[in-house]
Amino acid sequence: MGRLLLVRHAESEGNRDRVFTPHPGIPLTERGRAQAQAAAEWLAAHCAPVGIVTSPYTRAQQTADILAAALRLRPRVEEDLRERSYGGLAGRPYDVVRGLVDPVAYWEWCPPDGGETLVQVAARAGAVLDRLVAEAPGDDVIVVSHGAVMMGLWQHVTGVWRQGRVARNAGIFVVEHRDGRYLGATAVEDG
User: Fold this and answer.
1) Range of the domain at 169
2) Can you say whether residue 44 is alpha, beta or left, with left for phi > 0 and alpha for psi between -120 and 50 degrees?
3) What is the domain-level CATH number for residue 146?
C-alpha cells in the first residue's frame, strides 16, 4: 500500500490579508514558514516519502522547499497542481463571494471572467494523483498544492465533496491507495 500526503501551502500574504491571491508570485509569511516547518516535522515522524511534487506557484514552492529540506528530497513542479483560477475575483476580499455562491453546489460555481469550477480543478489535479499512484504504487509521495485544489483532490479520491471545510494552511490529508485504487482519505487535523 502507498500513501499520498497532500499538503496545503502554508500561510501566504494573500491568506493573511484574506484576499484571493492576485498573482502566482505571492510568498509565504513568517507564520507560514513556521507552519511549513511544523508540517515537515509531522511528515518526518509519520512517513518515509520518496518524492515531493508541488504547484508552480511561489507559496506552494516555498512550502515544498521547507518540507524537502527537512526530508532530504528534491521537489518537482507539476503545473496542474496550480490553484483554482478565480478570474475577475483575483485580488478581491474572500467576502465578495458571499451571496454569489450556492453553498450546496459550490463545486459547480465558476468565478466570473475566466475562473474555474472546482469540478474542473478536481479533474486536472486528480490526473496528477492518478499518475503519481501509477509511478510509485507502494511509496509515500508528498503533494503540495492549494486550498481549492485540496478540495478537488478530496473529491477525486473519496467521491464526495468535503463541504465547507477547506484544509488549513499547511494542513495534511493522508490518502491511502493500493493497486491503483484509492482507499480513503484522512485529514490530519480531524484526528
Assistant:
1) 2-190
2) alpha
3) 3.40.50.1240
C-alpha cell at 183: 482507499
What are the b/e assignments for 143-165, b being 16+ CB within 10 Å?
Answer: bbbbbbbbbbbbbbbeeebbeee
- Counted domains in the chain: 1
Check: CB of residue 175 under 8 Å from CB of residue 157. Answer: yes
Q: What letter represents residue 101's amino acid?
A: V
Q: What is the pLDDT along the chain (191 residues), one digit of tens a residue?
A: 899 999 999 999 999 999 999 999 999 999 999 999 999 999 999 999 999 999 999 999 999 999 999 999 999 999 999 999 999 999 999 998 887 777 778 899 999 999 999 999 999 999 999 999 999 999 999 999 999 999 999 999 999 998 767 899 999 999 999 999 999 999 997 54
Q: Which residues are catalytic?
A: 9, 83
Q: Which residue has the cell 524537502?
A: 68
CB 8 within 8 A of CB 167: yes
